[in-house]
């Protein structure tokens, strides 16, 4: 119970600290999952990838003008 009590004293005793801990944990978890999925995607697609076409401002303007 020592670890659980210490965790409660440090993180969950005050609401502001708890909310900060949850938000920071969500951000770190999202970054870790994004990095892992990106590496897995690149590992599975070696040799079949293509370089994306660069978007220029004239292309974006032409698309916007055609929508209007």
UniProtKB/TrEMBL annotation:
Transmembrane segments: none annotated. Keywords: Electron transport, Membrane, Mitochondrion, Mitochondrion inner membrane, Respiratory chain, Transmembrane, Transmembrane helix, Transport. GO terms for biological process: mitochondrial electron transport, ubiquinol to cytochrome c. It is found in: Mitochondrion inner membrane. It is a single-pass membrane protein. One of its GO terms (cellular component) is respiratory chain complex III. Its main location: mitochondrion. Belongs to the UQCR10/QCR9 family. Component of the ubiquinol-cytochrome c oxidoreductase (cytochrome b-c1 complex, complex III, CIII), a multisubunit enzyme composed of 3 respiratory subunits cytochrome b, cytochrome c1 and Rieske protein, 2 core protein subunits, and additional low-molecular weight protein subunits. Component of the ubiquinol-cytochrome c oxidoreductase, a multisubunit transmembrane complex that is part of the mitochondrial electron transport chain which drives oxidative phosphorylation. The complex plays an important role in the uptake of multiple carbon sources present in different host niches. This is Complex III subunit 9. It comes from Eleusine coracana subsp. coracana.
């Amino acid at each position: 119970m020592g670890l659980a009590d210490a965790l409660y004293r440090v993180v969950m005793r005050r609401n502001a600290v708890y909310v900060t801990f949850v938000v920071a944990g969500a951000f770190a978890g999202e970054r870790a999952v994004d990095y892992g999925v990106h590496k897995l995607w690149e590992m599975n697609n070696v040799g079949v990838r293509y370089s994306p076409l660069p978007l220029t401002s004239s292309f974006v303007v032409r698309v916007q003008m055609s929508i209007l």
